[in-house]
């Protein structure tokens, strides 16, 4: 029989495959394909679809490794933190969790800040800070009420985004068919200005568009049959976005084969006006705002569950593992992330987003290596297929992600390095100067699924 203390620290299983996929799609955000299109076009010298294909390759490898680890460690939430900790030791597990906190803790801030910046530009009479708060408050309240409510809200938010993208694709193809843009069906993939260096730089930035799929592992304790559901959901989400990003970039470069925009940061609105006029540009702007809200909703939910797991394990303050008695949600982590979003009042988008990828790529590398370590220790399969699935693909993922990490600008690597150093210092305190291991991960929490 489970005591009251443990039951208050167990999440409720309410999510099926479709719910997890929708949360993943909302987390990554479909309209990020338009929000960052100008930057990818510019960096790739007009071959954005090819840059996305390179990034897709790295993300598929990584999603495969995450899926392998999720199928093995399926009893608890924790993401890369759990997997690396179990396969490579609790100290590396802690540092992995610390690194991934760079993403989970600050991506909501960036998401809310981007949405607020769009609105502040459109309605300059309203202060930027007011728009930031307008994003944070309802998002935080929805996540406190419960992941099931957030999932239902995400269905509508994701549907609207996909409708906007479908209209953009249709209008772009119609514009291309009726105008001589100078592009061919293949020119978006390769042109005279294509270089490997440009593609690599663009691919490293394009990886930001995919970040978020890994957070689905944080929903393990709230998912039915997580051993099968989480790996399938991750691959579905990555494949879906790979097709979406490549397709949107392709039609965008059909109607705009060059790399020059009036404002590269708002290129989506310029493209929307080109193919659909000012009315459609207004619809795209509305879609971008809706997308930012949906993304913030899903990311805050997953991030709070990472804090819940690390708090429950004792590597962060225990108060983070507190669940709301009424809603059974990690309310302390949810509120803390909401408060962190207020830092956006004092930062700009470029600064706040500069170090996001450092934590993600570092975690991706370690998860790929953890998959190889699991095979080395446990031999879960035999033959060429097992070697391919447990060694070759994860190794390829680790190599590609390391290359992307090294392709980040110097400021991102510097800030990431400082964050890592702080993590090492906290680990030293936690382990009394590395003389003892940090608290171990709890992967055998009782299943307290409640009757519906």
List the helices and strands in order: HHHHHHHHHHHHHHHHH
Provide the structure class. mainly alpha
| CATH C-level category | Mainly Alpha
In percent terms, what proportion of residues is strand? under 5%
Largest sheet: none
Beta strands, count? 0
Distance between the termini: 21 Å
Number of domains: 1
Q: Taking all residues together, what is the mean pLDDT?
A: 84
- Overall body shape: globular
- The percentage helix is over 70%
CATH fold-level label: Amino acid/polyamine transporter I
- In the predicted model, the low-confidence regions spanning at least 5 consecutive residues are 1-8, 443-452
| Gyration radius from CA atoms, angstroms | 22 Å
CATH architecture: Up-down Bundle
CATH superfamily: Amino acid/polyamine transporter I
Supply the number of helical segments.
17
Overview of the structural elements:
One of its GO terms (molecular function) is transmembrane transporter activity. Its main location: membrane. Keywords: Cell membrane, Membrane, Transmembrane, Transmembrane helix. This is Amino acid/polyamine/organocation transporter (APC superfamily). It is globular, with a radius of gyration of 22 Å. 71% of the residues lie in helices and 0% in strands. The protein is an all-alpha fold. The protein has a single domain, classed as Amino acid/polyamine transporter I (Up-down Bundle). It has helices at residues 4-7, 17-28, 32-35, 37-43, 48-72, 79-88, 90-122, 128-145, 147-178, 196-210, 226-255, 267-313, 331-340, 349-353, 356-378, 383-406, 410-430. Helix 5 packs across helix 10 (196-210) and helix 7 (90-122) packs antiparallel against helix 12 (267-313). Mean pLDDT is 84; it is low at 1-8 and 443-452.
